[in-house]
């Protein structure tokens, strides 16, 4: 952005001109410059610091999604971002406030005060961790999935998919903090090592090097009590027949099918779902807002105690958005933890 | 059976000589005659009245099942049966008591007192309805699935598969009694008529005449709140993407895959499970014994009030067992309601 004296703010923003009918290509995205008008009452000018790059962004780019969920064509895209208020025409949102908006994909934005959330800074916690990882959606998604959906108990065996990803890396650690035996899956040997050596996984496997079924038979011959699934696809297919009696699958996303055609889920041994009384439950973290205060209290405690880490990878600059998007959708992506783009 | 004076009882019983590797053929079953020894302490001699012919019997006949679930080769098969005690060497189980055992497939049997259940006769209720349909496993399975697993509420839209079958015909009626709008699926036009004209379904369709997806789009354009699934297969595949927000699928069996290879479940729109927070939960009615008294009280009330019917079809005589088994596994079987064989 540039802003000179009282002159208008200018935003650089990523636009999707046409919703996607096939896999995302870099040329589908266009960077444009827009002069922002003067603030209207109830609006604030936000300088973005970081945006969150989530696989689910891809869903909103898809023509098949349709309805209110899809990005409007020819407009800047949205994504969770954390930033600082530069100018304010809204009571209660002062200049200097740190805020979370859905106005990522641009360096500066005009936000309506009733569509943003003010974030209390937490001592010793990085603003992006605070708002976009451990104490943001990823942390809440992991906490809700394990606590309310799967009701994970100490001593149980937990599988976490995409365990080196933004949500998975938190779910894996929360599983350990709850006293479960945790198995993580990831897409490179490097990440697998990182899971066991740094993040505390009891075991981990590379689903490119070994079929998920074979890996699970080797690492969890007794089967799984809980599967925290944020990938769908072959891992979910391998997990279902390996669930123990009263096994629970908390399913918060199907990254494997987001880009392109989407891979259908194929479960061969359907009878097992009945015989073992298996529950497969999809959920949205937004449906569990009443539990967020409890979740945030526990997550904040672990984070400030140093028992929970919020791994993240930062790509530098607005120009790296296409690379970040393509990376987050690639199964063997190099980044570890939550993928963020520094916008300013 | 024949029994002369104090001479030994002779049982006619169906034996499975070899577990199945492919679809069931009539010649896989053999009828043999066995002389029963004198009663040991704790045993009773039971004259069977009716046996329940369930699709799940097929699972126990399968070599792939293995372990404790499979029938032992060369021995008489088991199935739920209701009968009367003819002779007793067990305290607490008098001659004349009506009992439920897992000793179907034969006309007379020696049962251990600790492996049978005495049934209180209910005034005006047929013994087979009492023990093998509305107040037996099918009634409990339907009640538990709708009440505890799916938590069906008044005003919701409910789909029941195999709605003309033993469990489905009860689930459909219970759904109506709970104030839901109920759609039933069945495999013949005759049954579809029966569901709407006699059983009280709000709508019904023949899944052989119309694809389940098209039928559901026509009959439930707003989608489904609850799916009571006792078939799996194409109906489950059609239901998943049509579940409304917080939709629940209570899955108590996958008849479509029981005989032969088993059809895998294929779900194309996995992302919908998350977006709509859909729950798919398999369950076994035996895991919910603590709720049975409450279930039986409600079912018995409806049954004696005449608000719940326990549809059943009776095939006559032990010799009709192979026909009954083949019928219960056929998707367009002619029988309505629970299939029973009269054994004496």
Major β-sheet annotation of chain A: 7 strands, mixed
Describe the global form of chain A: globular
Note the run of SSEs of chain A as H and E: EEEHEEEEEHHEHEHEHEHEEHEHEHE
Q: Which regions of chain A are unreliable across 5 or more consecutive residues at pLDDT < 50?
A: none
Structural class of chain A: alpha/beta
Q: Report the radius of gyration of chain A as a whole number of Å.
A: 21 Å
Number of helices of chain A: 10
Biggest interface: A-B, 35 and 34 residues
Query: Strand tally of chain A, please?
Result: 17
Compute the separation of the termini of chain A in Å.
Answer: 8 Å
Oligomer: homodimer
Helix content of chain A: 10-25%
User: Averaged pLDDT of chain A, please?
Assistant: 91
Strand percentage of chain A: 25-35%
Describe this structure in words.
The structure is a homodimer of 344-residue chains. Chain A is built from ten helices and 17 strands. Chain A has 344 residues and is α/β, with parallel strands linked by helices. In chain A, strands 3, 5, 6, 7, 8, 16 and 17 form a seven-stranded mixed sheet that branches. A six-stranded parallel sheet of chain A has the order 11-10-9-12-13-15, sandwiched between helices. In chain A, strand 16, helix 10 (321-329) and strand 17 form a beta-alpha-beta unit. In chain A, helix 3 crosses helix 4 and helix 3 crosses helix 9 (292-305). The longest helix of chain A is centred in the last third of the chain and has 14 residues, at 292-305. The mean pLDDT of chain A is 91. Chains A and B meet through strand 14, helix 8 and strand 15 of A and strand 14, helix 8 and strand 15 of B.
């Amino acid at each position: 952005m540039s802003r000179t004296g009282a002159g208008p703010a200018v935003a650089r923003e990523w636009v999707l001109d046409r919703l996607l009918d096939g896999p995302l290509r870099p040329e589908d995205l266009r960077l444009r410059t827009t002069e922002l008008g003067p603030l209207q009452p109830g609006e604030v000018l936000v300088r973005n610091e970081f945006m969150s790059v989530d696989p689910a962004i891809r869903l909103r780019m898809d023509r098949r999604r349709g309805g209110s969920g899809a990005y409007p064509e020819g407009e800047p895209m949205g994504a969770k971002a954390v930033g600082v208020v530069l100018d304010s025409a809204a009571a209660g949102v002062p200049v200097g406030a740190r805020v979370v908006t859905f106005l990522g994909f641009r360096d500066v934005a005009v936000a309506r005060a009733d569509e943003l959330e003010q974030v209390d800074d937490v001592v010793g916690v990085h603003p992006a961790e605070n708002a976009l990882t451990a104490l943001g959606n990823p942390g809440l998604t992991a906490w809700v999935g394990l606590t309310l959906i799967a009701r994970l108990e100490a001593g149980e065996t937990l599988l976490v998919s995409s365990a080196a990803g933004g949500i998975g890396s938190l779910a894996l650690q929360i599983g350990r903090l709850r006293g479960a035996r945790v198995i993580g899956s990831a897409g490179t040997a490097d990440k697998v090592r990182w899971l066991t050596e740094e993040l505390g996984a009891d075991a981990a496997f590379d689903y490119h090097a070994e079929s998920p079924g074979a890996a699970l038979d080797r690492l969890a011959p007794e089967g799984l009590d809980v599967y925290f699934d944020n990938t769908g696809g072959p891992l979910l297919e391998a997990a279902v027949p390996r669930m123990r009696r009263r096994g629970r699958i908390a399913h918060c996303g199907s990254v494997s099918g987001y880009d392109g055609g989407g891979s259908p889920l194929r479960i061969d041994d359907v009878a097992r779902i009945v015989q073992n009384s298996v529950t497969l439950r999809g959920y949205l973290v937004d449906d569990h807002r009443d539990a967020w205060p409890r979740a945030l209290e526990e997550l904040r405690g672990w984070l400030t105690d140093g028992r929970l880490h919020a791994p993240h990878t930062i790509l530098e600059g607005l120009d790296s958005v296409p690379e970040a998007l393509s990376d987050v959708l690639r199964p063997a992506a190099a980044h570890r933890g939550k993928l963020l783009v520094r916008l300013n």
